[in-house]
Each structure stands twice: as structure tokens, then as C-alpha cells.
């Protein structure tokens, strides 16, 4: 914070304190005056105190009347501080805009990075496709061999059954 701002803040605080103390004094004066009125009706000895209270009240009221100058000063300080903070508001807007730009850039970088990952996965995917095609070809070959073996086995079984049937029929004829 620069010196002028600090001084302005101090003057503002002093102005606030002065207003607050004037209000407190006014309340005290009223309560003292009310108390003095109550006492004066009870006793004439309190006339002297009442005179002092009136005198004090008059002095405090005159001080309270001088406060509007302080109030004007306070208002002008507030206006000046508002002017000073306006620049900070603009700076904050610039910072927010810059942050949004950075976040957008980060999203773009993440998207590019994820694309790079996909591209680096592509060669391994191609290798897997090749391996799957090779396995598929091997399975087809095994199926063909299995089919041929099944046909051969069926023929052998059929031949064996015929031979067995012939042997059985020839045994029955020989007896």
C-alpha cells in the first residue's frame, strides 16, 4: 500500500472514531443531563453540578456541530479510495482473463497429449490385429485338418464295420 493510501485510511479511521465518540458523548450528555435534572429536583445543592453539566453539554454539542467537516473529509477520502480501488478492479479483470486463457491452453495441451497417447497405442494395436489374423488363420487350418481327420476316421470306421460284418457273415456261413 502506498503512503497516500495508508494516510487516507488512517484519516478515515480517525473520522470514524470521532463520529463514534461524538455519538457516545451525546448519549453520555443526555444521560448526565437527565440524571442531573432528577437530582436537581431533589436538592438545590446540585444546581452547581447542573450548571457544569450544561456547560459540558454545550461544549460537546459545539464539537458535534464541527463534525460535519470531518464527515465531508471522510466522504472525500472514501471517494478518493474508490478511485484508487477502481484501478485494482481493472487489474483483477485482466488477471481473470489471463487465467481463463491459461485454462484454455491447458485443456488444449491435455487434448493434444491424449491424441498423442492414442497415436502411440496405434502401433501396438496394429500388432495385435496382425496377431489376431495369424491366430484366425491357424484356427481355420486346424478346423480344416480336423474336418479331414474326421472324414478319414469316418471312412476307416465304415471300412472296419464292413470288414467286421463280412467276417461275422462268413463265420455263420462256414459253420
Please render the helix and strand layout as text.
Blueprint: H1 3-42, H2 47-174
Helix pairs in contact: 1-2
Q: What low-confidence regions span 5 or more consecutive residues with pLDDT below 50?
A: none
Biggest β-sheet, characterized?
A: none
Give the total of domains. 1
Structural class: mainly alpha
Report Rg: 54 Å
Amount of helix? over 70%
Number of E-state strands: 0
SS field, number of helical segments? 2
Question: What is the H/E string?
Answer: HH
Beta fraction: under 5%
Q: What is the approximate shape?
A: rod-shaped
* Residue-averaged pLDDT: 77
Q: How far from one another are the termini? A: 131 Å
Keywords: Coiled coil
Coiled coil: 125-152
Question: What does this 3D model show about the protein?
Answer:
- The chain has 175 residues and is mainly α.
- The chain has one domain.
- 96% of the residues lie in helices and 0% in strands.
- The N and C termini lie far apart (131 Å).
Defining traits:
175 residues; mainly alpha; 2 helices; rod-shaped
In short:
Keywords: Coiled coil. Residues 125-152 form a coiled coil. The chain has 175 residues and is mostly helical.
Amino acid at each position: 500500500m502506498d503512503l497516500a493510501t495508508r494516510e487516507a485510511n488512517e484519516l478515515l479511521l480517525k473520522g470514524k472514531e470521532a463520529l463514534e465518540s461524538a455519538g457516545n458523548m451525546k448519549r453520555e450528555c443526555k444521560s448526565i443531563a437527565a440524571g442531573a435534572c432528577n437530582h436537581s429536583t431533589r436538592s438545590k445543592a446540585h444546581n452547581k453540578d447542573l450548571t457544569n453539566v450544561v456547560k459540558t453539554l454545550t461544549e460537546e454539542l459545539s464539537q458535534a456541530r464541527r463534525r460535519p467537516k470531518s464527515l465531508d473529509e471522510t466522504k472525500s477520502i472514501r471517494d478518493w479510495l474508490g478511485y484508487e480501488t477502481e484501478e485494482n478492479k481493472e487489474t483483477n479483470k485482466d488477471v481473470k482473463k489471463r487465467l481463463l486463457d491459461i485454462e484454455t491452453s491447458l485443456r488444449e495441451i491435455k487434448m493434444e497429449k491424449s491424441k498423442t497417447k492414442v497415436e502411440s497405442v496405434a502401433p501396438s494395436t496394429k500388432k495385435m490385429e496382425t496377431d489376431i489374423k495369424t491366430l484366425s488363420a491357424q484356427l481355420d487350418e486346424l478346423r480344416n485338418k480336423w474336418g479331414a481327420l474326421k472324414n478319414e476316421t469316418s471312412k476307416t470306421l465304415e471300412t472296419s464295420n464292413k470288414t467286421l460284418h463280412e467276417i461275422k457273415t462268413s463265420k455263420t456261413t462256414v459253420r
